[in-house]
Amino acid sequence: MNGFASASGLRKNPALTGLMDLLERSQWWSPEELETHQLGLLRQLLKHHEQHTPWVRERVAHNGRNADDLTASLATWSGFPLTTRRDLQTAELNSRSVPAAHQPVVEKKSSGSTGEPVVVRRTAVSQLFWQATTLREHLWHQRYPSETLLAVRAHLTQAMASKGWGSPVGDFFKTGPSYGVPTNTDVLQLLQWLKDIRPSYLLVYPNIWRAILDAGREESGIWDKLRQVRTLGETVTDELRTRTRAETPAELVDLYSAEELGTIAVQCPHSGMYHVMSEGLIVEVLSPEGKPCQPGETGRVVVTDLMNLATPLLRYENGDVAEQGPACLCGRGLPTFKRILGRERNMVRLPDGRRYWPTTGFREFGAVAEIRQYQLIQRSLQDIEIRLVVSGGSLSPRQESALSEIVNRWIGHAFHHTYVYFPEHIPRHTSGKFEEFMCLI
User: Which of these, 135, 169, 122, 128, lies nearest to 16 by C-alpha position?
Assistant: First the structure.
């Protein structure tokens, strides 16, 4: 039997057990039941932030409403102004008080798909919901936690090995070993890791997985134990899903998440669409005119985090693009996306032939200057153009040198940098997408 089939280990954490029990029931709720649940949480959230967050109080008052008016229905809520990444950068959004039951509070930094770094404070309740949706994703996809996991992650600076999978799975279930490898590891080295470890589960960015498949075309037996390739952080194409099925015994399972929001949507094990984690979020897909998209229509993603009493993310436009999906034939009442778009980043190319998914070091940018948006464009094997929107208009030569040192250290090569400055926003591609790193060679 699958190691996740029994949730007995959850009894060690009553709060998580209760939330998992709720999620087991709520996935089958009708749209009306789900909306009632969301509006109840939204009402509590707004009343808290009206009292403790002046920015929210002013926005509510400016619209001539109160919490009860705004939460009469989801249609009513859709009239509330959007929160942008620039708001998170420039406004004082944090609540002045967080209830003890929601403590401790931690900071999460994110560059998102728009290259605009933000810092969001998230509570213990936010973390609990992330744990529950993470476990839900494992349960839906019937994984065996006793087997081996290999994760290729951006936050790692060196390869590491562990006896378990880590939180939350390792907190409640007996797991097999796990290994972590930085994203800037050369593709051939990643291939060697796969040969040596023979993992059952690989967590990886789609572009890296595509490069691994390319490098492993002539290998035999390398995929023999691979059950699933779990992707996140970028757009997954139909071509990559097809290649995964054709060239390996594994299935590709994608996860849609964000540092500032946690898990947003989980791929359905039956249809392949993405189910929104609507028990803790209100997610809208809006047309350019601001109207709700219908199934098959593509629009920008707007999210309200119903769990966060520290930093209010109210109708937050996170910069992503998605295609609205229809009701799922699996029977779950959770809304769907058919596709997630707008987050693809390219791989850096080095003069020695290596290529990998770059880490820019954006978490250190704040030590140099107030950088509101950035984009890196590789123009040649030696040159990267750094595009910036900064407070004050531009950096000094000393600041440019410091920023270049950070970027080169994280990317892993001494590129020459040319700086280009923009007053408000760096232009998007004509498709509406924005990539924080683009390789044009």
Answer: 128
Q: How is residue 8 annotated by DSSP? A: G
Q: What is the pLDDT of residues 167-180, one digit of tens each?
A: 899 888 889 999 99
CATH number of 8-131+258-341, picked from 3.40.30.10, 3.90.1750.20, 3.40.50.12780, 3.90.1570.10:
3.40.50.12780
**What pLDDT does residue 5 have?**
45
Q: How confident is the model at residue 165 (pLDDT cuts 50, 70, 90)?
A: very high
- Residue 358's pLDDT is 84
What are the distances in angstroms from CA 413 to CA 153, 188, 228, 405?
Answer: 19, 18, 32, 10
Percent of the chain with pLDDT over 70: 93
Tokens (6 digits) for 325: 């999906």
Tens of pLDDT, residues 396-431: 999 999 999 999 999 999 999 999 999 988 886 544
Residue 112 predicted with pLDDT over 70: no
How far is the C-alpha of 64 from the C-alpha of 66, rounded, in Å?
7
Phi-psi region of 166 (alpha: psi -120 to 50; beta: other; left: phi over 0): left
C-alpha distances (whole Å) from 368 to each of 151, 282, 386 are 31, 36, 14
Statement: the pTM of the whole predicted model exceeds 0.85: no
Burial code (b: 16+ CB inside 10 Å, e: under 16) for 328-364 equals bebebbbbbbbbbbbbbbbbbbbeeebbbbbbbebbe
Contact 212, 181 (CB under 8 A): no
| Neighbouring C-beta atoms of residue 219, cutoff 10 Å | 11
What span, in angstroms and rounded, lies between the C-alpha atoms of 74 and 159?
Answer: 46
Q: Is the pLDDT of residue 100 over 60?
A: yes
Residues 6 or more apart whose CB falls under 8 angstroms from that of 185 comprise 152, 159, 193, 356
Q: 301 - beta bridge partners?
A: 285
- The closest alpha carbon to 265, from 213, 335, 210, 327, belongs to 335
Continuous segment of H or E residues that includes residue 47? helix 31-52
Average pLDDT estimate for 353-369: 86
pLDDT for 1 equals: 32
> CATH number of 348-439: 2.30.30, 3.30.300, 3.30.70, 3.40.1350?
3.30.300
Every domain of the chain and the residues it spans: 8-131+258-341, 348-439
Backbone angles phi and psi of 389, in degrees to 5: -120, 115
State the Cα–Cα distance between residues 385 and 379, nearest whole angstrom.
7
